[in-house]
Specification:
Elements: H1 8-12, E1 20-21, E2 24-25, H2 31-47, E3 50-51, E4 56-57, H3 65-76, E5 80-84, E6 92-94, E7 99-101, H4 106-126, E8 131-135, H5 144-147, E9 158-160, E10 166-172, E11 175-181, E12 189-194, E13 205-208, E14 214-223, E15 229-238, E16 249-252, H6 259-262, E17 269-272, E18 278-283, E19 289-294, E20 304-306, E21 311-319, E22 325-331, E23 337-342, E24 349-357, E25 365-366, E26 373-376, E27 383-387, E28 391-396, E29 401-412, E30 415-423, E31 428-435, E32 446-451, E33 457-460, E34 466-471, E35 477-481, E36 495-497
Parallel strand pairs: 1-3, 2-4, 5-8
Antiparallel strand pairs: 6-7, 9-10, 10-11, 11-12, 13-14, 14-15, 15-16, 17-18, 18-19, 19-20, 21-22, 22-23, 23-24, 25-26, 26-27, 27-28, 29-30, 30-31, 31-32, 33-34, 34-35, 35-36
Domain PLL-like beta propeller: 266-350
Protein name: PLL-like beta propeller domain-containing protein
Pfam families: DUF8189 (PF26607)
Length: 501
């Protein structure tokens, strides 16, 4: 869904081989835009991406875009919808008015916002999942779909609750979808269930605290009393598996009530420290990081600005071995990652630019081991893990894209192991393992036999088995469980789960 055919090439460049794409435009565009579109379609054909016919032009006027986009969705019945950034990035600051200057065509952002709203309505009408992805206009195609994403997908979206039951959480157009095991380690699941909550933008951060409670974070857009849209961070807690979630609480925005600046806030990352403090990190309009802390008694600190470097929309929050919080971020202008950390729980934030991490865009992730991150090395695309005090260790697996998810403490032939999952060629779910705490022992990767439209996930179930999760191109959750007693790491055939809506 784009404003004109000239906006389509940016999205077409991110499509993977085997995809089939329909293009819907609000306006027909200029001859030059159509020529650029035709070149992009030819490039797609060469890469194995099929573009279905001519662009569908809906001739939308301001105030009527959402209804016409909704009509297009009803006709096309998509699982995935791609559009550009509903909150375009500024190009400069008007110093006199202290306001960001946005030079993108106004129709571009209007179409993106209308697409998010129409997809939300369409999903509630049809009862089937719809997944919206928003991408930065003008982003370098070499960033890839995940590196150019405005609202990231969660990597750790399969988690074990306090009672031992697994739950899966994914962001959809209409809100967070949840699937839940009916009993720990069992084959019967409920879901997908649409959780009650505010109208969220299409991303999600999933975090677990020391008690095992699941915390969900997102960005919402809402109208205030002045009739204008504001964007802020929101948070809710899942205390019991399968039960209603708690209320969504506002975390705020590092730019307060400044609507023009606040709408550009990045997607939140969050982590708990050893004392139970919740730390939330957000990329601000200046492309540095702002953070605030919630104490165990519920009190929030003010926003603190972490200066020293500009960062991209790729933050990873985690807890160091000392129990203190830290946040890693890919830098904006170089293939590098930096971290801010605290030496003590109440100490000052310090910037470390010497970590030696060079991640490909969209590949940073927190590892199960404290203070450890994984990424794909920008020079070779191989998976690496950065071990505190020991430097980077290669885990192989250079094919595919995106970050790596992992679960530690999996028993394999009497050894405690860490099981890894990642996206391979054409979205295939690839699996590997190494001894807990010993990534240098090497990883043998294998194709698990199914492809996923979201990053695959892994968790340990209530019976101690590794469980793989992915989402098929039909929008159905699929699971494979570890076969205990097998010679090596083996999984059951994939099973489709969840039928309730």
């Amino acid at each position: 869904m784009v404003a004109t055919p000239g906006d389509a090439p940016a999205l077409l460049a991110l499509q993977e081989s085997g995809s089939q794409v329909d293009i819907v435009c609000a306006q027909p565009g200029t001859p030059d835009e159509r020529a650029a579109f035709d070149r992009a379609v030819a490039d797609c054909a060469a890469r194995g991406v099929r573009v279905a016919g001519e662009p569908w032009v809906i001739d939308a006027e301001p105030g009527k875009i959402t209804a016409l986009v909704l009509d297009a969705l009803r006709e096309l019945r998509p699982l995935r919808v791609a559009t550009l950034d509903p909150d375009p990035e500024h190009t400069s600051i008007d110093r006199e008015a202290n306001r960001p200057v946005v030079t993108e065509p106004p129709l571009r952002g209007s179409v993106a916002r209308a697409t998010v709203a129409a997809a939300r309505t369409y999903q509630r009408e049809c009862g089937s999942p719809v997944f919206v992805r928003c991408h930065r206009a003008g982003a370098d195609p070499r960033l890839g779909a995940r590196g150019a994403a405005r609202h990231p997908l969660p990597l750790r979206w399969l988690v074990r609750g306090v009672d031992g039951r697994l739950s899966a959480y994914l962001p959809s157009a209409a809100g967070v979808l949840r699937w839940t095991e009916r009993r720990a380690g069992g084959d019967e699941w409920s879901g997908p269930e649409l959780l009650e909550g505010p109208d969220l933008l299409p991303g999600l951060e999933v975090v677990q605290d020391a008690q095992g409670y699941v915390h969900l974070f997102g960005l919402r857009r809402r109208k205030r009393a002045d009739g204008k849209d504001y964007v802020d961070v929101v948070h809710t807690t899942q205390y019991q598996s399968g039960r209603p979630i708690g209320p969504w609480h506002p975390v705020g925005n590092p730019h307060g009530n400044d609507r023009a600046k606040g709408r550009e806030a990045g997607f939140p990352a969050a982590a708990f420290d050893a004392k139970g403090n919740l730390h939330v990190f957000v990329r601000n309009i200046g492309h540095s990081i702002s953070t605030r802390r919630q104490a165990p008694d519920g009190r929030w600190s003010g926003w603190q600005h972490l200066r020293g470097a500009t960062v991209a929309d790729e933050l990873v929050a985690l807890t160091a071995a000392s129990g203190t919080p830290e946040v890693w971020a890919r830098t904006r202008d170089a293939a590098a990652a930096i971290r801010w950390h605290r030496e003590t729980p109440s100490g000052d934030w310090a910037l470390d630019t010497t970590a030696g991490v060079s991640p490909a865009p969209g590949t940073l992730s927190a590892a199960p081991e404290a203070g450890t991150v994984r990424y794909r090395y920008s020079g070779s695309n191989e998976v690496c893990v950065q071990v505190p005090g020991a430097g980077a260790v290669s885990l192989g697996g250079p094919e595919g894209t995106g970050a790596v998810a992992a679960a530690a403490g999996v028993g394999i032939q009497g050894w405690g192991c860490t099981v890894l999952v990642r996206s391979g060629e054409s979205g295939a779910c690839c699996v590997g393992a190494h001894a807990d705490g010993r990534p240098e022992s090497g990883v043998w990767w294998f194709d698990a036999g199914e492809a996923s439209v979201v990053p695959p996930a892994v968790a340990v179930d209530g019976l101690g088995r590794a469980v793989l999760a992915l989402l098929g191109d039909d929008g159905v959750l699929r699971l494979a469980r570890q076969e205990q007693g097998a010679s090596g790491l083996a999984f059951t055939p994939w099973v489709r789960v969840g039928s309730e809506t």
